[in-house]
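[#protein-structures] MJ: dropping VOC domain-containing protein here for a structure pass
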Amino acid sequence: MDDLDALAARLEAHGNAVEWDDGFPGHRRFYTTDCLGNRLEFLTPSP
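AK: finished. structure tokens for VOC domain-containing protein:
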């Protein structure tokens, strides 16, 4: 498991929805929202 998977798992464990997006070739990314409803994007290059 890489750091991005660990972050997504931690967010989900605290009740935050995580939406994975495979539309950026060469990268892994997901979206979530903060407590004010702002969309946050997290990404990392694919191994």
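MJ: nice. The chain has one domain: 3-36.
AK: one more thing. The two ends are 12 Å apart (CA to CA).
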